[in-house]
Amino acid sequence: MTNVIAVTGATGQLGRLAIAALKARGATDLVALVRDTAKGADLGVSLSVFDYHQPETFGALKGVDTLVLISSNDFNDRAGQHRAVIEAAKAAGVGRIVYTSILKGDASPMVMLAADHIATEAALAASGLPHVVLRNGWHTENYTGSLGAALEHCAIIGAADQGRLSTAARADYAEAIAVVAMDRAHDGKVYELAGDVAYTMADLAAVVSEVAGKPVAFVNMSQDEYAKALEGFGLPAGFAAALAQSDAAAAHGALHDDSRSLSQLIGRPTTPMADTVRAALA
Asked: Which of 42, 101, 129, 157 has CB 3.0 to 4.6 Å from 117, enough for a Cys bridge?
């Protein structure tokens, strides 16, 4: 049985790692769905132009057996974008879809960020297509990506208070994509994916201090204060509000999961937070 696997957002941070993980596991019939083929030239796989906002590019789904639908990073009607792709996939004869959702799905207290994912999961169920839902927790890189500013100001800010964070490296989630995309036995499954070892923002700050060799503290803020701070960094008000609400929800367990489903799926422990910190500061 053929398994032509196509990956949306293949030049994005998760998409690139998913392509690499698929290749490492021996997948050969790979298609990177990208807006700009020049940016995907280094992926080493077939490229097709594909844009959530341009239905005329959806013909790229023809001949695809497994579609990896990495959630859009465009927050202007993400659910609508995803629905259009799911409908086009069904019309094109795509055999199955693997979707990257959010940890806890419809039970997530991250109401602003979760809404699009909940709607997409509903659209997948309504489509009748075989599918796998990967409910991804936070990437550790969501925190380590801004360590330059943290070191400059000797502070990591947020609204997560003492909430436990079960994050994993982006490469861990990419490997999970590869596992389920290559094996139809996962069809119909919903996986809650998170890191093996939970930590607090204060723990993160302590590790950053140790690795960087300078004091860095976690400064907890109210949700409103954090949203204003994010706006001050240049984020659009709506996105800043959504991130601040999500961080405040993390204080109440939104990003904690101790099922170890991710490490079970990929067959190894998830990447320790400290390793991702060291890589970011290397």
From this structure: 101
